[in-house]
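Researcher: For the annotation table, I need structure tokens for 4,5-dioxygenase. Please keep the output clean. Sequence:
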Amino acid sequence: MIMCAGIPPAAHAQATGGNIHPMFDDPENVGTITAWHAHVYFDQESRATAAWLRERVAEHHPAARFGHWHEVKVGPHPGPMYQIAFTSGDAALLIPFLALNRRGLTILVHPDTGRPRADHLEHALWMGAVLPLDAAALVERPK
């Protein structure tokens, strides 16, 4: 079964109003991407690894902006995490850096197109396990 960000097709159809990527839609314009976000998930055992990664990203990618450490579920995210925000110009180096240095951490990377639901559920790139996101916590805005 093909799933979008770990969501079964029927649930995805309900969350997106039934629009499951019609075959002949025009492709999305990458010019709508204003920035990128990486959500680094951790638990009590992996918190030190998450801190190590945060320090390395700050050291090697000083333009990256870091969100707070969220020790509990926040928004659509199923557990503790912090966010790294970065520009499209930095994405070509920062995303591979995360891939090579995540040390077993699960990371969700997504563009910011101003459409939070689509960005988290349809445009998501997962490194590690695909975690279930709370689609109800994500607002969708028209294209």
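Researcher: And a one-line annotation?
Model: The domain at 33-137 is CATH 3.30.70.1240 (Alpha-Beta Plaits).
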